[in-house]
Amino acid sequence: MAGRTTLLALLAGAAALADASQGDREPVYRDCVLRCDEWNCSGAGLQHFRSHQPIYMSLAGWTCKDDCKYECMWVTVGLYLREGYKVPQFHGKWPFSRFLFFQEPASAVASFLNGLANLVMLSRYRTSVPASSPMYHTCVAFAWFPDGR
């Protein structure tokens, strides 16, 4: 029984470490996010952030904390590069410069095109398959919710 408990504890510890990327674990990044959150995401700092945040950013759901993570990511990347290290990943992704409110514009375009293709195929399916077919409604439901959400 003690062996199982030890194994579970080791697996839980490994899962906790695997959850974070190199950049996420960096103390400079963590401290920067904490300081930024304290200074900019409450009270007068939050009011200043909101008054200077472009409308398209707020409509896209970017929060003050998201902005802190983004800015601190680049502070950490700058330190890594100055010290001669490779650029680390943050939150499982490589750092990309933000364009408008897209941090990964190519990924956003690919997702949009994927959704468009899904709608085109749904339209073709609905016109060519009779609604009385046994799996018709199931296929339509999967087309509307392709990843289970």
UniProtKB/TrEMBL annotation:
GO terms for molecular function: hydrolase activity, acting on ester bonds. GO terms for cellular component: endoplasmic reticulum membrane; Golgi membrane. Pfam families: Per1. Residues 1-20 form the signal peptide. The keyword Protein biosynthesis does not apply. It is found in: Endomembrane system; Golgi apparatus membrane. GO terms for biological process: GPI anchor biosynthetic process. The keyword Cell membrane does not apply. It is a multi-pass membrane protein. Keywords: Golgi apparatus, GPI-anchor biosynthesis, Membrane, Signal, Transmembrane, Transmembrane helix. Belongs to the PGAP3 family. Involved in the fatty acid remodeling steps of GPI-anchor maturation where the unsaturated acyl chain at sn-2 of inositol phosphate is replaced by a saturated stearoyl chain. May catalyze the first step of the fatty acid remodeling, by removing the unsaturated acyl chain at sn-2 of inositol phosphate, generating a lyso-GPI intermediate. The fatty acid remodeling steps is critical for the integration of GPI-APs into lipid rafts. Involved in the lipid remodeling steps of GPI-anchor maturation. This is Post-GPI attachment to proteins factor 3. The lineage of its organism: Eukaryota, Metazoa, Chordata, Craniata, Vertebrata.
